[in-house]
């Protein structure tokens, strides 16, 4: 909403800075960070009071978790969502439709995750509501978002798939774009959800991916930089950098409370919402394949679960000692801080590789 004040810049000169996406991105980051810092303790105290025993710990998971993580409240994603949404609404251009599409996916995925967390806490079981129903709801939301993205873009490019390293290689998908885009969004949401298993493990890679796609959004939405880098220009997507800034700020605030030993868990409320958000931004900016590189850690976690399940059903044997793969390393004797920090390093390296594709074309 502050963007509207730029209309008075002719009278009040300093208000002209509100026209710049970079300034508003910084403002969104700082606002979200302060919001989470100010209200974080109150939200944690409220959730601890309401949840009592906290998030139920899987009995078939690492046995150490039954001791070290017992009683810790969940739904910490509410802190991130409140901070990010308030900050985005305050600093982003309200007329930008991409912002509202991404916020819509983020909030609806967050609502699904919240209901799942609610069932787990109230019934004291690690199983939430029907996995199939949850996937159907996510797919419908994602498909609606992809349809909206295709509708506001220029055709046929808006419903096409682009490839890293090759600007001229564009694959028109037509109506299949909705299916493909929905797969990316749902996959991203659930991949982040699977990664959220150790203190701080998911939020830092999310921050890294948000930072990367904030940069990509800004460049993709700027015709000058897009032409210079020889990447596809998508008008309007630059404003998504403000949303990414808000998520980075809120994520840093949450990390303050989620750092080992965690005072609160993100829960499905946060992981589904944040995964859906970065998936939708990737689809909007036409960088779906780059997301698989930048968010390669999330892909690895999801693939490890798929491989484990398929292998066990087909052969009766497990490839990993436990899935997702971060639990496998726990079983190998790695300490939790070792796993978390090393996975952070992997995430940084993958982000650098993904960003390098912007110039290598």
The total domain count is 1
Q: In DSSP terms, counting alpha (H) and pi (I) runs of 4 or more, how many helices? A: 14
Shape: globular
pLDDT under 50 segments (min length 5)? 63-68
What order do the helices and strands follow? Answer: HHHHHEEHHHHHHHHH
* SS class: mainly alpha
Distance between the termini: 37 Å
Helix content, binned percent = 55-70%
How many strand segments?
Answer: 2
Q: Output mean pLDDT.
A: 89
Strand coverage percent: under 5%
Strand order of the largest sheet: 1-2
User: What is the C-alpha radius of gyration, as a whole number of Å?
Assistant: 20 Å
Largest sheet descriptor:
2 strands, antiparallel
Summarize the structure in short.
The protein is mainly alpha-helical.
Overview of the structural elements:
The protein is mainly alpha-helical and 361 residues long. It has one domain. Helices cover 65% and strands 3% of the residues. A two-stranded antiparallel sheet has the order 1-2. It is globular and about 60 Å long. It starts with 20 loop residues before the first helix and ends in a 5-residue tail after the last helix. 49% of the residues are buried. Mean pLDDT is 89; it is low at 63-68.
């Amino acid at each position: 909403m502050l963007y509207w004040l730029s209309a008075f810049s002719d009278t009040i000169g300093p208000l002209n800075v509100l026209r710049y996406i970079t300034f508003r991105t910084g403002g969104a980051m700082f606002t979200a960070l302060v919001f989470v810092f100010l209200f974080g303790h109150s939200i944690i105290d409220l959730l601890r009071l309401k949840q009592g025993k906290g998030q139920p710990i899987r009995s078939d998971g690492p046995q150490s978790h039954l001791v070290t993580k017992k009683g810790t409240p969940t739904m910490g994603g509410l802190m991130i969502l409140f901070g990010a949404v308030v900050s985005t609404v305050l600093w982003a251009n309200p007329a930008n439709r991409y912002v509202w599409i991404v916020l819509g996916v983020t909030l609806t995925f967050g609502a699904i995750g919240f209901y799942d967390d609610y069932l787990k806490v109230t019934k004291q079981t690690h199983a939430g509501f029907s996995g199939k129903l949850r996937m159907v709801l996510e797919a419908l939301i994602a498909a609606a978002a992809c349809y909206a993205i295709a509708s506001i873009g220029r055709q046929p490019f808006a419903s096409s798939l682009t490839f890293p390293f090759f600007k001229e290689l564009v694959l028109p998908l037509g109506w299949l774009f909705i299916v493909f885009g929905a797969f990316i969004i749902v996959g991203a949401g659930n991949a982040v959800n699977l990664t959220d298993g150790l203190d701080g493990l998911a939020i830092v890679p999310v921050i890294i991916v948000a930072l990367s796609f904030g940069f990509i959004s800004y460049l993709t939405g700027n015709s000058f930089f897009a032409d210079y880098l020889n990447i596809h220009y998508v008008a309007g997507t630059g404003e998504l950098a403000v949303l990414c800034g808000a998520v980075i700020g809120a994520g840093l605030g949450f990390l303050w409370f989620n750092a080992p030993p965690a005072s609160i868990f993100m829960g499905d409320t946060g992981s589904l919402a944040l995964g859906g958000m970065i998936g939708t931004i990737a689809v909007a900016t036409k960088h779906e394949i780059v997301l698989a590189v930048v968010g390669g850690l999330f892909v690895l976690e999801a693939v490890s679960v798929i491989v484990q399940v398929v292998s066990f059903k087909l052969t009766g044997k497990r490839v990993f000692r436990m899935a997702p793969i971060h639990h496998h390393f726990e079983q190998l004797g790695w300490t939790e801080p070792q796993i978390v920090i090393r996975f952070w390093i992997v995430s940084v390296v993958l982000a650098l590789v993904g960003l390098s594709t912007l110039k290598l074309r």
